[in-house]
Amino acid sequence: MTGVITSTKNVNLTGDQRIDGLISGYAWDGTITYAFPTSSTSYLYNGEKDYSFSSISLQQRSVALFFMERSYGNTANDGFSVEGFTNANFVVGNVDTASLRFAQSSHPSLPTAGAYYPSTDSWGGDVWFGTEYAGTESDYRLPEFGNYAGHTLAHELGHALGLKHGHEPEINPAVVPSNYDSIEYTIMTYRTYIGDDTSGYNYEQNGAPQTFMMLDIAALQEMYGADYTTNSGNTVYKWKPNEGVTYVNGVAAITPDDNRIFATIWDGGGVDTYDLSAYTTRLNIDLRPGGHSVFSQGQLADLNGGPNNGYARGNIFNALLYGGNTASLIENAKGGSASDTIHGNAATNGLWGDSGNDKLYGDGNNDGLYGNEGNDRLVGGAGNDRLGGGAGSDTFFFETSFSSRTNIDVVTDFTNNKQQNDVFWLDDAIYEAFMLGDLSSSAFKDRAFGRADGSDRILYYQHSGELYYDADGSGITYDPIKFAIVENHATLTAADFFIV
């Protein structure tokens, strides 16, 4: 326990209005101490302490520690704490001098809750909870993940660490852009959904964010740096359709009162996975930074308004990159038994569709896309990707610009029989020699059956599995360029290609 008063620092704006709209300009500079005073005599200034002072509940303390301390509870909690996603260091302090102090008051100017920004004044960092909602479902003494009291506690902690309201200008006149100004992106706004007013939150009883959201994380990292040691190994994040629990490596990290999932993931590194294999609903999984994923309509928070039929636009949101560092990306995703859509990111992705007619999209690296059962669509994107359709009639879509070395995909299991009728789709914007529709038989040549002629555009070497595109059919102006390898050396004809 320390009685040293922590100094403060000024925080400059970044030029990114999404982040600048949350920066008050003040932050702590050094170890951040915290305390839970039990007596009003710990406070030197008049005001809140003089009106029915009381200490906060044990439940409030537990939730406050969850959001502050990486070491609190089990390691599954780590990535959701400020200490887990920033370089801030929290330690227990003296009740008279701690940077952050939490207490309750019935002060008439404090009907809800409030907090002071970082300051070396005696009130700097103090958090106060009012009593207006005592005995109701919004009672501040009963915070849970996803209820109003839990949201308020994290919101006020944000102020005490230097975050301002996203919806209103202060000393810093910036505000969060209107298309990001909702609790889906920051817990520091009063707008429940995009386009909402600021008169109060509209979400259902357990429809609040369960964590700091992506813009909060980004702004706090701007103030305190980003921590890449938290969950820096191979981490699996898993969810189930019958409960709102977020599991980290098999251990419950967030356990809300209701079956709602509404959180943001920050991960420090490693090869990480979103595991949705338990789901039977159509999934829309997006691994891109700042993206969001929908697992189940029934698990979306009801915001009682807004552009997404009144619901939150996603269950899980991905943190933004800090300084362009891709270590925080989630690399892999496992779908469920319905027809899912999964988008990868700039990392080396492994995407598994499982059952259903899935759509899998790689991005800019050497990805592995595996449809498994069902009639799947696999789009590798840039990079040397591995595409495995599995059972069913699958589509392998080639839509990215050519490269002689870095955009050659391996199709592992092309099958064209009565039970499975796989097909290659070629984008006419890239494969410019073709008209839309079926590939003409004269434009395809299996080189095992002779030399190519001037009309041949798709050249196949079955013994090696190599597929080439010849833009002019002569090789004079343009050399044939390899775009795929059929690993199982399937027999191909023009009927296996379609131009879109």
UniProtKB/TrEMBL annotation:
GO terms for cellular component: extracellular space. Keywords: Repeat, Secreted. Its cofactor is Ca(2+). One of its GO terms (biological process) is proteolysis. One of its GO terms (molecular function) is metallopeptidase activity. The keyword Methyltransferase does not apply. Its main location: secreted. Belongs to the peptidase M10B family. This is Hemolysin-type calcium-binding repeat-containing protein. It comes from Rhizobium mongolense subsp. loessense.
